[in-house]
Structure prediction request, 223 residues.
Amino acid sequence: MRNHNHGVNVLLRLTVILFGTFLLAFAYYHINFQNHLSEGGFVGLSLLGKYVLGISPSISTLLLDVPVLLIAWMFKGKTFVCNTFVSVGAFTIFYGLMERYSDLVINLQGNLALAALLSGVLTGLGAGIILRSGGASGGDDILSLLISEWKGIKVGTVFILLDVIVLALSLFYMPVKETMYTVMAVVVAGYVITFTTSLGKPKLVKAPKIQSTLRKPHDGTVM
Prediction:
């Protein structure tokens, strides 16, 4: 009976992760790509690497993801990393299928503010669902989660900060208008991620600083 319940829980968790991944793929293709919004995170860094150094994004993304996955394996465990692999693999499949077969066109070129809002809500909800289910959609989300747990900062806030930094660098090769609307999408996504991952959970408590702990005498006296 216990094995049956465990199997049901695993299947349910994977189904939720796949749903969150589908939302991400849908938003990135039908909203971001079709309306020429730029990208943050490791995808944005990979595009910058292509522009500045001529390195293929297929190589640079791998170089960015692998070290983060190894760190996640040590601190989050193999289940988390396996869930992440499921999400990454499913995203590739979902996006590829949409790119090849989807006839849906969401043209919001005349209202990029709405495009940014929709992108932020859908990507934030998708990423938040995956994180809440014990996985991540990629190395940049893992990095945001690890920094969040280390510093006691909301994961959505870290997500916003990292993506805004990447988008600022992206101004070297992307139009200013699309980049600014992408920043808007990232900010919305960050708040949605925070809401999704923290709903019904206690607030994060910042870990005590190592230096403060070391300075405290073991005998209880005050220095």
Summary: The longest helix spans residues 2-33. The radius of gyration is 19 Å.
